[in-house]
Design goal:
heterodimer; A: about 280 residues; alpha+beta; Enolase-like, domain 1; five-stranded antiparallel beta sheet; four-stranded antiparallel beta sheet; 14 strands; globular; B: about 800 residues; Aldehyde Oxidoreductase, domain 4; 3 domains; seven-stranded mixed beta sheet; about 25% strand
Chain lengths: ~280, ~800
């Protein structure tokens, strides 16, 4: 790999990182696990002047219990997220999707914050953040602010994080006891999703009381399948789930690329939603 | 021969590979690891356009960059801008357009090379290429073969009248033969054998250095063909052959992709000579995807005629073969390596073949594991299934009815090849047994009956292939420039150890182990006492290298002959020492013994010392003992086998799962069964890769869409089941060790097995073909189309 020339700084606090970004101007870039940034540098799709390495910032590394929510530092690796006891107990869907990210090596490097900030439409975790109503803590020159998932994801590879800002952590409301399932549809075992459907449901006496469904790669950013969520309330049979899943592609705008045409992605969204919900509901 | 195999110790044993410790401990010497003082690093300005006229090249910006020493375009490189060679014009009138290392007039493919920069470090060279100012006047790109041969198409090469490189014909009489059968059943298909990218693990790298004050230039390059390359580099650069040394250090895979004389190799050597300094180039993966030759890429029109009761009458094949933008080393010949194989294992009355080589604005194609034979095997095994369906016959029964039976060998096929031996019945029976064929057919019926969304299909491929390239006279008759012999020299060292010099050039195959097993058994010397020397024209001057499953099939015979000669050359010395007639000696287990007097014996090791000290040699016998042999094979080798795949198809999404894969290969005698199995596994992964995952795709402007390994998908272990492999052994009678080639078998056999399995699963839904790679979307579309047709 021969990237363009860049300066490198490795701050130990969020404030120092923000200061380094401000000093670096528009061309500064945050480095998390490097699993998306390095390919960009390698292909010279970007030639930042300064790389601000956030991997030594302690504040961004923990997973903490905040009562009715779990706070995950932006610098926590996928592997640590997937194996964390709090996450597994209260955010089963996040644990499942994170296990499906890339391969083992990449999961040991890539971070929660990097995946969210990179906002690849094929990313596995952003739809979970959206469906579960996560919120994002962003630090910048004028302090910290909190942004809801609905406002965080803006467009292809674009989020609410400004060029001089750092994503510090992501807060997920607990979904303790909810059934969960992730249907990742890809061509080879370690490839990105062609379509992914993340479903989590709260059951009440054999029928679905509440459902949260996020779709991967069905638009420029993560998509929440609200139509399906509404239609699922009260569903207790596979037929009812299948009928609700027919709404899965509503309001989506998937891409056509070499792996799949938009029409096929829409079809997959419906089939996979039915399967994911049936599994999550244990039906 | 059988005797020898029974009495030996090493041959036939699954010995661990000698070369693996080095690989596993990272003690390898890849070309890119070679660092020479004063090296200049080369970076290339590659065309971002598939077809354009070059209107300006300004090097001054790059020359002004730090650490840049020189920069060239076609004009400034002048006489040193040699042409990239093609050694296989298949017809007298094959159009062979110029292919300069740096292109000056037009670019003809994305990745074509317009200019180069040399700097004292690789990063400076890479930085500087974006400062070379090139202006292009875009021209329409000719991407697809059907368009390319349409009248009025844009021309890839202005010097040619059209985009056809050649038209080749073989056989004939198909229509006459069919006419004899008024009730003939005819099945026609158009198959697309898609373009593949070799994707070896180690990208290419090359470094050339003038050696001190001598005239010698040494070039280290990640190649499969150091010997052939030396001749070619001499022919294209004019550097005398005796001054040129080509070394292939450890090479991380080739699959045909490093069976080439690349422009980068030519440039590096010319620049090293001109500037008197080492010059080095290492490609990135992104470069590799566009700049290393691709494989396959044929449109296959195939027609099979049968009697209504299922006897084959004749076969007609009409190919469009994509050459890409230029002809590389054997680009035009690749489809012809497949031409003899369309009739495969079947008996029929007539065969007619035509192939049209077509230029397009794409990366040139050339050999990729199997080279022509996978394409042929795919087409014939697919259409055999389609014919069986048309006739309402069980596909294995249909094959059985038409294949050459074991007692009919040697058998001369309708394509003119004479297969020495084979036993399709035995391999098939064993494979069906291992597979549980009947039980799976029963499960298939049950799933069909219950309307299970997951349908099951059974894919069959009963293949043979021609390999062990090749009898030199045959190559000559096909207009290939070189021969197909192989060389071996075996030297007994004074201390009884052995140097075995081979002309084969392994890049992952395990020759060091297998060659030691052969020589060790013949000479009665432990495998670990034999050092195999290869892949360096300075140490191993004669050879034809490694490709076409030839190394054991051809090179193995040279080893046997050379080892036999060592024994014969040692015999007079032994007779002299034991004071007997040479004829009274027998040789076994590394020692000569006087017949009937087991006490009177002398080991080869002792004779080696005697021949070295030379104190007491018989008159007229020269010091040192060695044996040399160069063997031109009597014929190709014809391995065969039966491959069976159980394919589960999710009819809702189109996603397929390879549930079980069983193959029984007959590669004749086996030197090292573990290496045989490894070759089969790797080949299967690549053949299954073609069926399910791989495919180089271009957009209509000629941009490669699958330009990274994120988009060009190759299977990993996680995508494949544990293969169940078995073998039968029908020794070759034309090869002195009774062996047949195995390097390409898996890649040749497996692709149609997978696709046949998918189609078999979906046939009740009306599906009769699936495009490769059988991606979920392609399978889903096939299902949708069949539903639409039935509605
Ligand atoms: C081969 C391969 C396969 C992959 N497959 C998948 C997959 O299947 N599913 C999937 O979801 N992902 C996949 N990924 C992506 C992987 O999950 C990455 O780890 C993730 O997208 C980025 O995380 P990172 O920590 O490595 O970020 P980096 O690469 O370091 O950064 C990515 C981007 O985010 C910015 N950034 C990083 N951290 C912060 C922060 N704290 N604040 C502000 N900006 C920040 C960077 O500036 C950069 O623009 C794959 C990656 C590779 C290389």
């Amino acid at each position: 790999m021969i990237p363009g020339k860049f300066d490198y700084v490795r701050p130990s606090t969020v404030d120092e990182a923000v200061a380094a970004l401000v000093a670096g101007g528009d061309d500064a870039k945050v480095l998390g696990g490097g699993q998306s940034l390095m390919p960009v540098l390698r292909l010279r799709m970007g030639e930042p002047s300064v790389i601000v390495d956030t991997t030594r910032i302690d504040e961004m590394k923990g997973i903490t219990d905040a009562g009715d929510a779990v706070v995950i530092g932006a610098g926590v690796t996928h592997d640590d997220v997937a194996k964390n006891a709090l996450v597994r107990e209260h955010l089963a869907l996040l644990a499942m999707t994170t296990e499906h990210v890339a391969d083992r090596q990449i999961r040991h490097r890539g971070t929660m914050g990097g995946a969210m900030a990179h906002a690849d439409p094929a990313g596995d975790q952003p739809p979970v953040a959206l469906a579960m109503g996560a919120s994002f803590t962003i630090a910048g020159p004028s302090g910290r602010r909190t942004v809801s998932a609905a406002d965080f994801f803006v467009d292809y590879f674009t989020t609410a994080v400004g060029p001089d800002e750092v994503l510090v952590n992501v807060t997920f409301p607990k979904h303790t006891g909810w059934g969960a399932h992730y249907e990742k549809f890809n061509r080879t075992a370690q490839a990105w999703a062609i379509v992914g459907v993340a479903a989590t449901v709260r059951m009440d006496g054999g029928s679905i009381a509440e459902a949260r469904i996020g779709l991967t790669n069905m638009g420029p950013g993560p998509v929440r399948a609200s139509g399906v969520e509404a239609a699922l309330v009260g569903a207790s049979t596979l037929e009812a789930i299948a009928a609700a899943a027919e709404h899965a592609a509503e309001g989506t705008s998937p891409n056509s690329d070499i792996h799949a045409e938009a029409e096929y992605r829409e079809h997959l969204a419906r089939v996979l939603t039915r399967r994911a919900v049936a599994q999550a509901a244990g039906l | 021969m059988t005797e020898m195999l029974e009495s030996t110790k090493a041959i036939g044993r699954p010995l661990r590979r000698k070369e693996d410790a080095k690989l596993l401990h990272g003690r390898t010497n890849w070309t890119d690891n070679i660092q020479l003082p004063g090296t200049l690093h080369m970076a290339l300005v590659r065309s971002p356009m598939a077809h354009a006229r070059i209107t300006k090249v300004d090097l001054s910006g790059a020359l002004a960059r730090p650490n840049v020493v020189a920069a060239y375009d076609a004009a400034s490189l002048g006489d040193l801008n040699s042409g990239v060679p093609c050694v296989w014009p298949v017809t007298d009138d094959t159009v062979m357009p110029p292919f300069p290392a740096l292109t000056g007039d037009k670019v003809r493919q994305v990745g074509d090379v317009v200019a180069l920069v040399l700097a004292t470090d690789a990063a400076s060279a890479e930085d500087a290429i974006s400062f070379v100012d090139v202006e292009y006047e875009p021209l329409p790109a000719v991407v697809n073969m059907v368009d390319a041969i349409s009248p009025g198409s844009e021309l890839v090469h202005d010097m040619a009248a059209n985009n056809t490189s050649y038209v080749y014909n073989l056989g004939g009489g198909y229509a006459d033969e069919v006419a004899k059968h008024p009730d003939a059943v005819i099945v026609k298909r158009r198959f697309v054998n898609q373009r593949l990218i070799p994707a070896f693990m180690e990208p290419r790298a090359v470094i050339a250095a003038p050696m001190g004050m001598s005239d010698e230039i040494t070039i280290w390059t990640s190649t499969q063909i150091p010997h052939v390359l030396r001749v070619l580099l001499t022919l294209v650069t004019g550097i005398p052959e005796q001054n040129l040394r080509v070394v292939a250090p450890d090479v991380g895979g080739g699959f045909g992709g490093k069976l080439q004389c690349y422009r980068e190799e030519i440039l590096v050597i010319q620049l090293a000579k001109k500037l008197g300094r080492p010059v080095k180039w290492t490609e990135t993966r992104s470069e590799d995807m566009v700049a290393t030759h691709h494989g396959r890429d044929q449109i296959q029109d195939i027609e099979l005629a049968c009697t209504p009761d299922g006897k084959m009458i004749g076969l007609k094949v009409d190919l469009l073969a994509n050459m890409g933008a230029y002809l590389q080393i054997i680009t035009p010949g690749i489809p012809l390596l497949g031409m003899f194989m369309y009739p495969a294992i079947y008996k029929m009355g007539a065969y007619q073949f035509q192939c049209t080589g077509v230029f397009t604005n794409t990366t040139p194609t050339d050999a990729y594991r199997g080279a022509g034979r996978p394409e042929a095997t795919f087409a014939i095994e697919r259409i055999v299934d389609e014919m069986a369906a048309e006739l309402g016959m069980e596909p294995m029964e249909f094959r059985t009815k038409n294949w050459i039976q074991h007692h009919e060998f040697p058998y001369t096929t309708v394509a003119g090849l004479t297969y020495d031996t084979g036993n399709y019945e035995a391999a098939t029976a064993k494979a069906m047994d291992m597979f549980g064929y009947k039980a799976l057919r029963a499960e298939q019926e049950a799933r069909r009956a219950s309307g299970d969304p997951i349908q099951l299909g059974i894919g069959i491929s009963t293949f043979t292939e021609m390999c062990g390239l090749a009898p030199s006279r045959t190559l000559g008759a096909l207009k290939y420039a070189a021969g197909g012999w192989e060389h071996c020299t075996i030297r007994l060292l004074p201390t009884g150890k052995v140097e075995l010099v081979t002309g084969t050039s392994p890049h992952g195959q395990g020759h060091e182990t297998a060659w030691s097993q052969i020589a060790g058994d013949i000479l009665g010397i432990p495998v670990e006492d034999i050092d195999v020397i290869h892949s360096d024209t300075g140490r191993s001057p004669y050879g034809m290298d490694t490709y076409g499953s030839r190394s054991l099939a051809v090179g193995g015979q040279a080893i046997k002959k050379a080892a036999d000669r060592v024994i014969e050359n040692a015999r007079p010395i032994a007779a002299h020492q034991l004071e007997c007639a040479a004829d009274d000696l027998e040789f076994a287990n590394g020692a000569f013994t006087v017949k009937g007097d087991p006490e009177k014996t002398v080991t080869l090791g002792a004779l080696a010392w005697a021949a070295f000290s030379a104190h007491n040699l018989p008159d007229g016998v020269e010091p040192m003992i060695s044996g040399e042999a160069t063997v031109d094979p009597e014929d190709f080798s014809y391995p065969h086998g039966t491959h069976l795949a159980a394919m589960e198809v999710d009819t809702e999404t189109g996603k397929v799962r390879l549930r079980k894969y069983v193959c029984v290969d007959d590669v004749g005698n086996q030197i090292n069964p573990m290496i045989v199995e490894g070759q089969v596994h790797g080949g299967l992964a690549q053949g299954i890769g073609q069926a399910l995952y791989e495919g180089a795709e271009y957009d209509s402007d000629g941009n490669l869409l699958t330009a990274s390994l994120a988009d060009y998908l190759i299977p990993s272990a996680a995508d494949l089941p544990s293969f169940e492999t078995g073998t039968t052994v029908t020794p070759s009678t034309t090869h002195s060790l009774g062996t047949k080639g195995v390097g390409e078998a898996g890649a040749i056999a497996s692709t149609p097995a997978i696709i046949n399995g998918i189609v078999d699963a979906l046939r009740p839904m009306g599906v009769t073909d699936v495009l490769m790679p059988a991606s979920p979307q392609n399978v889903w579309r096939a299902i949708q189309a069949a539903k639409g047709a039935q509605a």
